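Form 7-S
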Amino acid sequence: MKLAPILDPGARKPGPKPAQVDLHRVFFIGTAMWLAASVICLVLVLCGVDWAFKSLIVCVSGMIIGVALLTWEHFNRWYYRRLGNQR
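Output:
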């Protein structure tokens, strides 16, 4: 283990270039997966499965967080896309 990069910041290798990402796609797919899981849990609740109601609450919470993240991404897209274009 080399201690020079720890003791002397000038001896460090340059960090990797930031990756260009599309958070809209990631948040949308995640929210869609929570939606599919909530439909399954809703069917189980209607069938009378005891534990399914708590799972349905978790799935609906996941969808709410996903919609909030999609809203955040819509208003902050310029900021995180700009970071990926830096060299």
